[in-house]
Amino acid sequence: MTINASRSQDSRRAVYSRILYFTTCHEDYLSNGLLHGLRNLSEHETVDFPKQDILYRNCPEYIRHQIRGCGFTLYTDLLDDLEIDRSRISEDISKGLFDLIIISDIWRQFGYFVRFRPWMNRKNTIILDGADACLPYPAAGLFWRRPYYWFLPRAHREFLYFKREWTSDTRFTPLTRVLTKGLRRRLPTAATLRRISFSIPESKIILSRPHKEKDFPKHIVDAEVAERVQGAATSYAFSSEAEYYADLQSARFGITTKRSGWDCLRHYEIAANASVPCFRDLQLKPDTCAPHGLNDSNCIIYRSADELFRRIGLMTDTEYTALQDGALAWVRSHTTKTIAQYVLSEHRRFVDGT
User: Fold this and answer.
1) Is 174 helix (H, G, I), strand (E, B) or coil?
2) Is the full-model pTM beyond 0.85?
3) I want to staple 161 with a disulfide (CB 3.0 to 4.6 A). Which of 22, 42, 156, 209 is the partner?
């Protein structure tokens, strides 16, 4: 399959037959997951610019080894390289040769946003914000501490804006930094704001329940729980994805927590390997914030190691199987392809006013 970024508008086949996808040069789980999903939707042609080398099979191994998290999961189900003409992207944008433009990381790509803003409108542009920070672009201190950023164009006033870490403080105004929490909650939520989460390649989801040999895997990110599991490690414990997955598949439960942000590939990896996620303090997560859909039907929500071990000790085989099936159903609804379809669907509804 060949994609020519300079072909005529007359050859368009569908609403989003040609998509321009701005990328960042290093790993970005939200952005790269969505790009992976879009490229696996056969009805769309997606041009990544610059080329996202770490998602392709021909990416040099020395680069892949530098990826955070050892490059597991998202950077092992790789894309085939295509013949894409990226030499005249600016000209093609100005001619309107793309049906959809996606700024996949507004924090790092606002330069592209500013540069091409004259050719962007609500019908042809989507903004993604996958930052761990709850404050959106450009309301964070990074921008307001520097006067030359004060007059940057706003990304939410006209464009659909997908935010991963969406909390009550997610407001498109610097006032959130000086108002009390109660007053911040009275500020209106932008009508253009939408939810989004990480995703996982469908190929990474196990097809049948494996035999379980132990309660917990070797990698346990909750230090309090790790202290009570013999041989547990709180940091990366495996040098290969196959070993990591095999360990998860042999365990009945997988431990996960909030880190810099609430969403993490670990949640999806645990469920994809038919383990039941155990999520510390998940009850504190705002409903608008990813991950979405994890609850008592598909994971164990706990507040302390004592509570977790007590609940596991009282759990019947029937209850465990129900949680395991729930976790697998949940992760199957969060594949890269499913999230890509969701983003495009939300944009169609936005443009249509529905």
Assistant:
1) helix
2) yes
3) 156
Q: Residue 193 has what DSSP assignment?
A: E
What pLDDT, in 10s, does the model give residues 158-207? 999 999 999 988 888 766 667 777 777 777 788 999 999 999 999 999 99
Q: Position of tokens 């994609």? A: 3
| Alpha-carbon distance values, 219 to 228, 255, 269 (Å) | 13, 8, 12
SS3 319: helix
Any idea where the domains of the chain sit in the sequence? 2-198+337-352, 206-334
- Is-contact 161 190, C-beta < 8 A? yes
Choose the weakest-confidence range: 74-78, 210-214, 271-275.
74-78
> Helices (DSSP H) in the chain: which residue ranges?
29-39, 61-64, 89-94, 106-116, 141-144, 181-184, 223-226, 241-249, 265-272, 305-314, 317-332, 336-352
Lowest-pLDDT choice from 4-8, 19-23, 312-316, 324-328: 4-8
Closest CA to 269 of 249, 294, 252, 239: 249
* Fold classified for 206-334: Rossmann fold (3.40.50)
162 closest CA partner among 206, 104, 75:
104
